[in-house]
Backbone:
């Protein structure tokens, strides 16, 4: 097991992902649904990470260092076309968070992402999308007070504060409200059914 080599690879996969995202931002295409080329890249990265996990277990900070471990995290978050892989990573992260609190925020985000993809309320309010008024807002969550209590426990800001940050970030990236939100939601649900998030 060559941890430095694995760390280098994880960082390269992350850089390729972010570089393509930057390209979509420049072309003002980031809000136009899930880009096919981006999905292909995410699947390829997830498959590679899955091989690595089968070989060395979860790429923790202790094994591969901070940057590569954070790169791992980005790849997991973007592997939305691979439900079983994301759920496998959720279990691994649950175990890691028991040992090391540094993984609690990642666990919260992954829990929320899976819940949103399965059509369930999120617990920490980490996932955002365009609402009917054309504003970036948290996806459905269970209870604002409880969400903020959970967020503060793991060192996150309040959901109200985070919503302001997310909207400013979207503005700085020239993200625009998708043209037809209803059609976009319909297409997204068809995609979720196709890859296995919903039946």
Residues:
């Amino acid at each position: 097991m060559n941890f430095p080599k694995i760390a280098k690879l994880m960082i390269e996969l992350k850089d390729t992902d972010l570089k393509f995202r930057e390209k979509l931002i420049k072309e003002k295409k980031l809000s136009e649904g899930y880009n096919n080329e981006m999905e292909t890249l995410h699947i390829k990265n997830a498959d590679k990470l899955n091989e690595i996990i089968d070989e060395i277990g979860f790429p923790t900070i202790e094994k591969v260092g901070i940057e590569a471990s954070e790169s791992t995290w980005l790849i997991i978050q973007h592997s939305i076309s691979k439900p079983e892989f994301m759920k496998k990573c959720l279990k691994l992260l649950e175990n890691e968070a028991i040992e090391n609190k540094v993984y609690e925020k990642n666990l919260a985000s992954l829990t929320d992402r899976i819940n949103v993809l399965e059509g369930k309320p999120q617990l920490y309010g980490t996932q955002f999308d365009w609402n009917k008024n054309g504003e970036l807002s948290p996806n459905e969550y269970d209870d604002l007070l409880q969400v903020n209590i959970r967020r503060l426990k793991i060192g996150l800001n309040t959901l109200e504060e985070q919503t302001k940050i997310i909207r400013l970030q979207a503005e700085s990236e020239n993200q625009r409200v998708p043209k037809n939100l209803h059609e976009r939601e319909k297409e997204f649900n068809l995609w979720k059914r196709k890859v296995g998030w919903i039946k």
